[in-house]
Amino acid sequence: MNDQNDTQNSAPAAPGDVTLEYDIVVADKVVMPAGTLIHVRKPMGGALRGANLGGLVRMDYNQVALVAPRVTQPILHPHLIDAMDPADVTQIAGVLVDFLLPTATKAALSQSM
Fold this sequence. Notes:
This protein is 45% helix and 14% strand.
């Protein structure tokens, strides 16, 4: 039997994959348990419509909450993002920022560290 838990406990398989560190709890019910694998795909222009790119690069919560439902699987609706632990929101935001940075900028940042 194909169980949803099969994908929840696996390690991130791609650069855009994030594993939740904490349960997402809404109305005293765990809707996504810790260990759930969230795939974040690279946003194209349409997914960024209405977003402030500067705010997204600064990991502004409102911008992350605007874009994340458009590029995550399973979909992280705004009410789920509101219920997420800050560490998990930061993971999602970090993946989005990484997608937005040009390759040359990433290379320059990695050399300076």
